[in-house]
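Propose amino acids for all 842 sites.
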């Protein structure tokens, strides 16, 4: 659509082929009233069409009107059957066919097949002849298919055009991503539809919807769970399709097989590029992988000269990217070969601080050539990748980050090398990391603070890869995912056990280790078992429990980076405690026999392990010794610890707690918070839950992997230098962070007018006084101008949350303002330990 609009503006002969009777079919099929985001926010829109965030109906209406105004030549109901070359011209951009022709392996017929002009054959028998073809067909037309018996029956569909047209049917929805959830909810939105809808979810049921619906946005998942609770539909957890037959479906459940009524199956299980059709046009793909993208030039030209590929089929699923590409391709076809991509200024700024005078394309090639994990990316993928990453130059001796700094980004060394300082007091104790590899992977994976200090061993160029960019890299480039997992496993094992180990020493341990996903509440070690494996906590956290008097007693909390299970490897015997996941976690499972061989070869490591094991033995002995005389306190502490983990401390890095034995209800904490933050308090003292004397108010936990960051269109949420999670001024007030936070600690509100000083209030009674001003005072003192744009900005709501008083001298205001010391901020790995019970309880 954007490409056709540019062609119309330039007066080029063109036609826009639409398969359906309307524009933009993908967006047309979005859920009714769906809010469409115009991301990336920092990227300019280069198109003759308008596009701003808004409801899909409004966007489609604007596009329809603008397409008409531009005089675009649109052919509706034009379903393309094939695209075949008919000419003999071979542009210089198609090197592979030319080289095959030179060595005699390609015939003239083959050359003509993939050369313009192209005959575009439609299913209605019409043929369109074009010198250039722009494929903007996406991947939705090639859905992943159900592969069970009966999966090809006619009542199995992969799209739901109009949920309100389906009435009085028993419907199974397979797939719990956003599309599947929106389809399921649309089928039961009106009770008059009379549908019985069952959603199949392979994941187990969890109190945290993010764990049960990992591929969906949290607001969608929450709404689905609410519909289930209200009886509108049914969610079947840990359930998959076994077979399909007319009128029935057989399910594989946790408790066995079950056969139920089924009139229709809607499978929303993802899609892949329509490879057969695309390859039939003469377009080659980057690899044989089913999810690979076509091979394209920087101008989006494919290996078939004159055929260009843009949008999701090119690896750019965002609307704004696709619209810019459509504009750029038509400009290129029209002879504007000097036009740079819309993201060129952004990328130039990314590389501006690096030594040497390279162009953007030269820098991208330099990175792909020198950084192993980027080798499998196309130039176009690299461009998008770098928009979420930063290029930095470090002089020899410069510190890249310090031990215990917060950070979840990954670093790749493009040139030079770095040293890992094992002992901050002894610069000679280092581990060298050479050019081409990565570091910082522990922060990326676990979300915890940096485990070591890294300094540049020589003048060095690094790419700092944001967490989002790193996760996308791993999903798009399998070789990068494997490399990151192997390096992170090896380094985490070396960091855990140390004692002079080298990569060669633990090669067998790394090769035989496995990365294992663990559901919240699931045990990796059970008390009394006789297995011999060791577990390193890669992501999340664990709790250790011991059965005392027939019930589990909480022993300790293990954050990511900890290891457990070595006692059975060293001394044999049964497991002395149970270890289970506090939240959804990931562990490295190390083969006990392989690790035992490392211990046998390294006496220093064995001695260190025995010392650490002795500490755990003393803890177990303490619990055993107190189980009778001190059982009440042990039970209370254990239940209190379990309560705190249930309140989110299992994924927190910093949490506010209130000792209700000391709290006098003065609300100084809330008032101080408001006075430190534009008159809006970031905490609610009375809200939240309590156990015994310990109260967890509604205030940010500053999670390891913050839920609020998961879907922030302008990327306004960041982690600060002290680990605080904060929202900057680019917030657009969409409310996604508020909906995604499982702890209800984010509020949407407008900033009130500035209050007079406290002294003015004390002396002259000016202003509302300490704390948050009343709605009445704020409304009365808001100075409207009569300018709609200015007044709208005054009333615009933004996301408000605790930032740990970053930048305010003295630390969190809530703690400083508490007159009795009832309010404290704690790190869970320091607070949730039986050592406190040993020190305080006796």
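Proposal:
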């Amino acid at each position: 659509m954007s490409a056709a609009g540019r062609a119309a503006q330039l007066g080029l002969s063109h036609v826009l082929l639409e398969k359906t009777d309307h524009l933009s079919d993908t967006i047309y099929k979005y859920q009714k009233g769906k809010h469409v985001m115009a991301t990336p926010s920092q990227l300019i829109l280069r198109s003759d069409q308008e596009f701003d965030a808004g409801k899909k109906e409004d966007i489609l209406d604007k596009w329809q009107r603008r397409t008409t105004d531009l005089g675009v030549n649109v052919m509706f109901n034009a379903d393309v059957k094939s695209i075949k070359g008919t000419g003999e011209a071979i542009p210089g951009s198609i090197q592979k066919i030319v080289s095959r022709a030179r060595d005699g392996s390609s015939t003239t017929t083959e050359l003509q097949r993939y050369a313009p002009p192209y005959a575009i054959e439609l299913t209605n028998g019409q043929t369109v002849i074009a010198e250039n073809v722009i494929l903007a067909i996406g991947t939705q037309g090639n859905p992943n298919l159900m592969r069970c018996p009966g999966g090809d029956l006619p009542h199995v569909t992969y799209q739901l055009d109009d949920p309100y047209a389906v009435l009085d049917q028993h419907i199974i929805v397979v797939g719990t991503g956003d599309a599947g959830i929106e389809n399921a909810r649309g089928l039961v939105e009106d009770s008059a539809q009379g549908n019985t809808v069952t959603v199949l979810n392979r994941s187990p049921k969890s109190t945290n919807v993010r764990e049960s619906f990992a591929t969906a946005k949290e607001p969608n998942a929450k709404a689905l769970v609410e519909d289930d609770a209200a009886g509108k539909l049914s969610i079947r957890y840990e359930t998959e399709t076994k077979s399909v037959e007319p009128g029935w479906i057989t399910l594989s459940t946790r408790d066995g097989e079950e056969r139920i009524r089924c009139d229709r199956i809607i499978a929303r299980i993802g899609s892949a590029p329509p490879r057969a059709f695309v390859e039939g046009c003469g377009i080659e793909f980057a690899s044989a992988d089913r999810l690979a993208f076509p091979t394209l030039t920087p101008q989006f030209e494919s290996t078939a000269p004159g055929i260009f590929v843009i949008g999701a089929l090119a690896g750019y699923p965002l609307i704004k990217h696709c619209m810019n590409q459509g504009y750029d391709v038509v400009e290129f076809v029209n002879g504007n070969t000097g036009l740079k991509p819309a993201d060129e200024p952004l990328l130039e700024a990314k590389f501006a601080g690096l030594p040497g005078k390279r162009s953007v394309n030269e820098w991208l090639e330099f990175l792909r050539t020198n950084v192993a994990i980027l080798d499998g990316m196309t130039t176009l993928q690299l461009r998008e990748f770098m928009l979420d990453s930063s290029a930095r130059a470090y002089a020899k001796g410069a510190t890249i980050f310090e031990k215990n700094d917060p950070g979840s980004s990954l670093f790749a060394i493009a040139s030079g090398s770095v040293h890992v300082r094992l002992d901050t007091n002894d610069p000679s104790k280092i581990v060298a990391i050479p050019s081409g590899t990565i570091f910082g992977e522990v922060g990326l994976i676990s979300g915890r603070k940096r485990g070591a200090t890294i300094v540049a061993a020589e003048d060095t160029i690094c790419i700092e890869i944001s967490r989002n960019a790193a996760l996308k890299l791993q999903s798009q480039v399998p070789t990068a995912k494997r490399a990151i997992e192997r390096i992170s496993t090896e380094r985490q094992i070396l960091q855990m056990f140390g004692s002079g180990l080298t990569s060669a020493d633990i090669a067998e341990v790394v090769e035989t280790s496995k990365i294992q996903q663990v559901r919240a509440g699931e045990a990796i070690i059970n008390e009394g078992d006789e297995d011999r494996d060791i577990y390193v906590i890669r992501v999340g956290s664990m709790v250790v429990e011991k059965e005392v008097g027939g019930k589990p007693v909480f022993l300790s909390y293990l954050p990511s980076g900890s290891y457990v299970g070595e006692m059975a490897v060293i001394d044999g015997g049964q497991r002395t405690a149970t270890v289970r996941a506090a939240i959804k976690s990931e562990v490295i499972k190390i083969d006990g026999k392989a690790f035992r061989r490392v211990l046998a070869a390294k006496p220093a490591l064995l001695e260190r392990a025995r010392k650490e094991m002795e500490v755990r033995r003393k803890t177990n002995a303490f619990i055993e010794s107190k189980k009778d005389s001190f059982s009440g306190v042990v039970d209370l502490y254990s239940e209190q610890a379990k309560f705190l983990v249930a309140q989110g401390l299992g994924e927190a890095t910093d949490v506010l707690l209130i000792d209700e034995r000391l709290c006098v209800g003065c609300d100084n904490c809330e008032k101080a918070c408001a006075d430190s933050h534009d008159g809006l308090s970031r905490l609610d003292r009375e809200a939240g839950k309590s156990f015994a004397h310990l109260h967890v108010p509604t205030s940010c936990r500053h999670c390891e992997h913050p839920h609020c960051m998961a879907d922030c269109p302008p990327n306004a949420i960041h982690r600060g230098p002290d680990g605080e999670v904060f929202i900057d001024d680019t917030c657009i007030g969409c409310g996604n962070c508020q909906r995604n936070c499982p702890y209800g600690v984010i509020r949407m509100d407008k900033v009130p007018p500035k209050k007079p000083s406290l002294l003015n209030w004390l002396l002259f009674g000016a202003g509302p006084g300490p704390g948050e001003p009343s709605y009445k005072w704020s409304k009365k003192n808001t100075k409207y101008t009569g300018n709609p744009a200015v007044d709208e900005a005054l009333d615009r709501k933004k996301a408000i949350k605790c930032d740990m008083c970053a930048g305010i001298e003295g630390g969190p205001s809530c703690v400083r303002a508490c007159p009795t010391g009832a309010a404290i901020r704690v790190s869970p790995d320091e607070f949730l330990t039986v050592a406190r019970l040993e020190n305080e309880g006796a």
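Confidence is low (pLDDT under 50) at residues 89-109, 834-842. The longest helix spans residues 603-626.
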